[in-house]
């Protein structure tokens, strides 16, 4: 999957990248345009010896994709895992959809993303995020019932995740909703929790993030937001360095959030952003904590040989 625009990788950088786990890959199929499919993503990941990939779709259970591609993936170099996002396409906060994903081998459940009220509000205007809600008859999904309490379905979802010992993320929910989701998850034995892009869509400040981490969660930052080949938001690397210094590498995760048709390949995100972090004084040890060890734990690979 390399092309003429793919950056060169020095042996020193390859050593830092070796064994990283990407928890945020947007390969296809998807109703949003994708540059690569899941098999191609596995081969591309081998360029820098990534240990594993987690495939995310906003719209469907990616475990079923991977099972359909199992013969091709069996000989592909990088293990690939899937899960389900709790948007309206799968019935929202739907214990049945979660139980199916788990039964078929899923490693992650994403809280509502494109169906969350926070996402819908954030993308009312054209900001570059693909929007085909009307085509898919997207509906808002909440973790609450009609009384304002965390719904029974949400509680059951966290029980299923806790029993399976897999990853739960806050999706694109607002901060208060993520707090309530993670509180229920913690009560039901969920050990692996993740907050996505706190300063994009979610709108969490440093204090908000600290409160979410108090439930045992990690915070994820995405390489797509710091890569010059991605138009928006196009943040400087100093912003990411500042987040790492505030939160600490022990609870920080850095993933690609790449695979979209118009964007660089996921591996190119690693090559550019990790080199930039090293150039800006982040130690190799801390980088590997964020891209290898924390991510392996969240995907349930910490005990694998």
TrEMBL record:
Pfam families: DUF6282 (PF19799)
Matching InterPro entries: DUF6282 (IPR046249), Metal_Hydrolase (IPR032466)
Record-linked Gene3D superfamilies: Metal-dependent hydrolases
Protein name, as recorded: Cytosolic protein
Organism (species): Schumannella soli
